[in-house]
Write a sequence for this structure.
């Protein structure tokens, strides 16, 4: 028995899942046999079978490329303005945005939220938001006091060579 070539396009992947659904419906083959017939892994066929049992053939249908966005374009612009205000403006005492904090902000302002923090991450990437953390600085940092310490206290505390 010859194994078919691996599908490369979304249409070919869709066709392979539809063939699997037809084989599940026929009920004559084991999952291992279906995997061999279609050139798929046993794990993939098992996953397809679970999806097929819960949602039928429609559960195996191709989905459009790219996930639907959670927020509308104007809501995304508003979210970016909220993020630019910084975490302190929204009740956190440090200057670090975390995915869970951003998801909470989305929930509070837009009455929706991502089920998984990775959705927040993907949205931020798409919007061009960086993951980089700013240099850690205390919110109550007093530059004048630091300059005074550097010019008066530090020279006295520093050991002579």
């Amino acid at each position: 028995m010859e194994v078919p070539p691996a599908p490369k396009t979304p249409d070919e992947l869709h066709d392979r899942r539809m063939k699997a659904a037809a084989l599940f419906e026929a009920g004559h083959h084991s999952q291992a046999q279906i995997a061999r017939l279609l050139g798929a892994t046993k794990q993939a066929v098992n996953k397809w079978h679970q999806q097929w049992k819960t949602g039928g053939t429609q559960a195996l249908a191709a989905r459009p490329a790219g996930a639907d966005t959670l927020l509308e374009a104007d809501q995304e612009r508003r979210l970016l303005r909220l993020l630019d205000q910084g975490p302190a403006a929204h009740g956190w005492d440090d200057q670090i945005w975390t995915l869970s904090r951003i998801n909470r902000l989305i929930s509070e302002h837009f009455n929706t939220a991502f089920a998984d923090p990775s959705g927040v991450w993907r949205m931020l990437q798409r919007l061009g938001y960086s993951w980089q953390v700013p240099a850690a600085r205390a919110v109550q940092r007093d530059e004048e006091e630091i300059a005074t310490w550097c010019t008066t206290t530090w020279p006295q505390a520093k050991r002579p060579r």
About this structure: The chain has a mean pLDDT of 84. The chain has seven helices and no strands.
